[in-house]
Amino acid sequence: MKRRELLKVGTAAGAGFLATAVAAPAIAQSQPELKWRMASTFPQTLEILWGTAAQLVKRVAEITDGRFKIQIFGPGEIVPAFQVLDATQNGTVEMGWTSAYYYWGKDPSFAFFTAVPFGFNARLAEAWYLHGGGAEFVDEVFKDYSCHCIQAGNTTAQMGGFFRKEIKTVADLQGLKFRIGGFAGNVVKKLGVVPQLIAPGEIYPALERGVIDAVEWVGPADDEKLGLAKIAKYYYYPGWWEGGAVAHALINLNKWNELPANYKAALTAAAREAGLWMTAKYDAANPAALKRLVANGVLLRPFSGEIMDAAYKATEETMNEFAANNARFSRIYQSVRAYIKEGYQWWQVCELPFDLYQVRMSNRS
Amino acid sequence: MKRRELLKVGTAAGAGFLATAVAAPAIAQSQPELKWRMASTFPQTLEILWGTAAQLVKRVAEITDGRFKIQIFGPGEIVPAFQVLDATQNGTVEMGWTSAYYYWGKDPSFAFFTAVPFGFNARLAEAWYLHGGGAEFVDEVFKDYSCHCIQAGNTTAQMGGFFRKEIKTVADLQGLKFRIGGFAGNVVKKLGVVPQLIAPGEIYPALERGVIDAVEWVGPADDEKLGLAKIAKYYYYPGWWEGGAVAHALINLNKWNELPANYKAALTAAAREAGLWMTAKYDAANPAALKRLVANGVLLRPFSGEIMDAAYKATEETMNEFAANNARFSRIYQSVRAYIKEGYQWWQVCELPFDLYQVRMSNRS
Questions:
Q1: Per-position b or e across A208-218, b if 16+ CB within 10 A of its CB
Q2: What ipTM was reported for this prediction?
Q3: Do B344 and A350 touch (CB under 8 A)?
Q4: Are residues A127 and A209 in the same domain?
């Protein structure tokens, strides 16, 4: 029964007091006072990734007149950076702010939801998620980990990272100790690279001490903050393993199911709006950050055709190996692969010629 | 005073009834029952543009437990397609769903908020709006028309439209009667074209009867619905005057100012989320629609270098003419031009090489 109907019944019975007394719990039920904790993989120093979570919780509080409060905790405050999924799954926290592909070791299908090598660009990732069956796959996989997941923002195409020495051929990659995120480690291994997953806070000292030879993180805006250019001058592009990496808001599935419908709607809208903010923030911050890096002596280098083609081949092999051993991975891979092929066939007709012409004109005088 | 504090005070005084009675109006004020009308420029047959408004009002209703209801009306139901700004400004409707550049005749600065020739692509338009000063310009201009405006979605890069005959040189454009939206009419005039603004519902008969020789509307998904390919076979790209066109939710400024803060937050989040949905929907629908058009005999043609360069020059002349006569237009133009230049200088380093490689691979086999 709706609140208005209750009020009507109450008034009809001439029992104004009763009506109000009965109505109050109905409101309380749809507007409960909640205080949730959100564990973040990303530290506050990464102001775009942290800032996206901040936008999300601010908007939820505004919409609910402060009744639904979510507090963000940085990596190490409640759990380490890469235990955000576990902490959300087991209810240590109600929410997590992370990126699915960090957990590909638990389930390789997680990789698709953030980025796989030669995968989606930022816009195609969103199209697949909202309109191409992606959200249904996300629901299916995260359900196994007792989480509800909302896609929220994209880093945009990432750089290939900072290298101490020039990398011209596949031979130059042999034995290279490379900090690289997510599933892509499986691919670069085939190229002779020794992949290492290191949390953001530990990247700089690892490169400085020579524990690693090269580092990919995100793009100019974030990379500049890690200060990597001081140690490694060669800045490669494009990050073919992350044409756009997606961030995710996780909610413990029981907690999600307990939420009233209006809070579910508010949280979903706020997370997606925050995601829009994030993607736009990278697009806004990267141009100036790149200029500053170059002005400070960073040398931009494209990956050679030899490396790109070898990486593409290694990616196909890797994907097929995982698909052969995992039926769900195979199903999602077929969906993603077809979407990329068709998406880019259209891209080349309209977006790409426009962007190419604009790039040409932006380089004039 | 917050509701909880009121309850506490009431309970402390041993006056449970009073506390409840006092608390009710505080909730009612922040959760008023509202029924608004939204006039749309776009008819229901254009399912993505209409669907975006539908997403918006659905989400607002969900978040507010049905207390804030907005009903959408198609063009001609309350006001004609291109009088949505006027109707919102004068309070005939509380909201409008339209695109700012249809009103460039009232104020040429409106053009920047949707698309100007050789302007933003979809992502740069969002970056400029959210993080590059765009939203502040939007507020400044729309305030003069007693509206609050929320940017909500992008059509993505548009096609150049359907032409009855091949267009290879600027000479081929002389005297061509061309349906074209918004500010771009000023530019194509300089190329010898006779621009005409025709509402969506009247485009097909105008082309069929030969009132016009060519039509640009949006992209494959929308263009296919207008059935233009039956009359004009040559489908040109890219639509250099709309690298991405933005849609807008307008709210009468007095009505906006009267909204409680939580409703303002809900409406903003819902509109931006709907915008994300819209951009993704175009990216999802265009690839298959293009395939169908080509399978039905449409012939894809790129605009020649001669036409692109002449159009770029005509655009610069046009923008400078308007800037010379309008200080605010000039201010916004400087901001937009600098943003495009810097944005594309970064784009060429990371997004473009990734997209180019993906396009190449999507064409294999």
A1: eeeebbbbbbb
A2: 0.91
A3: no
A4: no
| Angstroms from B91 CA to nearest CA on chain A | 25
**Phi-psi map region of B14: left, alpha, beta (phi>0 left; psi -120 to 50 alpha):** left
**How does residue B17 score in pLDDT terms, banded at 50, 70 and 90?**
very low
Q: How far apart are CA B107 and CA B101, in angstroms?
A: 9
How does the average pLDDT of chain A come out, rounded? 92
User: Which residues of chain B neighbour A344 with C-beta distances below 8 Å?
Assistant: 355, 358-359, 361-362
| Residue A21 pLDDT | 41
* Chain-chain contact of A130 with B272 (C-beta, under 8 angstroms): no
In a domain, A360, yes or no: no
Q: Which of the four pLDDT bands, split at 50, 70 and 90, describes residue A144?
A: very high
User: In angstroms, what separates the C-alpha of B305 from chain A's closest C-alpha?
Assistant: 10
Residues A45 and A99 in one domain: yes
Q: Residue A36 — pLDDT band, cuts 50, 70, 90? A: very high
Structure tokens at B212: 């016009």
Measured distance CA(B81)–CA(B202) in Å, rounded: 11
Map residue A226 onto helix, strand or coil. helix
Q: Which of B65, B243, B351 sits opposite A354 (nearest CB)?
A: B243
**B103 with B207, same domain?**
no
Residues from chain A contacting residue B24 (CB–CB below 8 Å):
20, 23-24
- In B, minimum Cα distance to A349 occurs at B237
Instruction: Give residue A111's domain range.
Output: 34-157+244-283
Residue B23 binned pLDDT confidence (cut-offs 50, 70, 90)? very low
Structure-block tokens of residue A304: 């050679």
- What's the burial of A167, exposed, middle or buried (CB within 10 Å: 0-12/13-18/19+)? buried
Is the pTM higher than 0.90? The answer reads yes
The domain that contains B217 carries what CATH number?
3.40.190.10
| pLDDT band for position A197 (cuts 50, 70, 90) | confident
- What whole-number distance in Å separates Cα of residue B75 and Cα of residue B155? 19
Distance CA B26, CA B29 (A): 5
Give the gap in angstroms from C-alpha B61 to the nearest C-alpha of chain A: 9
Task: Say yes or no: B120 and B50 in one domain.
Answer: yes
Provide, rounded to the nearest whole percent, the portion of chain A with pLDDT above 70: 92
- For the stretch A40-59, pLDDT in tens is 999 999 999 999 999 999 99
Q: Do A363 and B348 touch (CB under 8 A)?
A: yes
A307 and A263 within one domain: no
As a 3-state breakdown, chain A gives helix, strand, coil percent values, each rounded to 5, of 55, 15, 30
Same domain (yes/no): A152, A225: no
CB–CB of B357 and A62 under 8 A?
A: no
Question: Can you give the CATH number for the domain in which B50 is found?
Answer: 3.40.190.170
The reply to whether B192 falls in a domain is yes
Query: Smallest CA–CA separation between A170 and chain B, in Å?
Result: 18
